[in-house]
Amino acid sequence: MPKILFSKASPYSAKVRMAAHQAGIAFESVATETGTPPESLLEANPLGKIPVFIPDESGAIYDSRVITQYLNRESKGSLFPRNGIKRLEAEQMEALCDGICDAALAHVYERRMRPEELVHQPWLDRQWDKAERALDLLNGQTISLPTKVHAGHLALRATLAYLALRFEGKWEKKRGKLTRWADRFDRKFPELAAYLPKS
């Protein structure tokens, strides 16, 4: 059975595990430490980053966007629209949400890895500005609750769950469309809740 090396708090891991579920591809979730990466992770991905998808046939696939494209091919196009314009929209949504997570994680790591007196506030502000601009863009768009989920939707749900986990109360104001979308998504697709980021 394929394996996904993951961290339970990681939004990228959440996206990939939801994507595999939606694609109908059975997998084993292997919780993996990233602070001091184990040899098994470094052998799979020399960058020591998760998620990593390990197919049955050997080899390893990373990063998360490469994995969603792989899963899409393996499931005969279940994760991205076939229409060229709609596919581009889905891919851009995935990229934008991953970018929000990149900025949020940079913010988290700056505080986690440095003593308080060495935290660089302008760096934190710059990262948060990126996340807020992207969130405002998404909140201003009409994002319908999908009947057929694509990878962009999964990336958005994983991103909002990660922000709720690490930045609760700091991003939701004036972004009610996004919070309502997340609530409706969870009610419509309860089977995906187990994969969302958790502490």
UniProtKB/TrEMBL annotation:
Pfam families, sorted = GST_N_3
* Protein known as: Glutathione S-transferase
Q: Which residues form the GST N-terminal domain?
A: 1-79
Q: Give any Gene Ontology cellular component.
A: cytoplasm
> InterPro entries from the xrefs?
Glutathione-S-Trfase_C_sf (IPR036282), Glutathione_S-Trfase_N (IPR004045), GST_Omega/HSP26 (IPR050983), Thioredoxin-like_sf (IPR036249)
Q: Which organism is it from?
A: Tianweitania populi
Q: Which CDD domains match?
A: GST_C_6
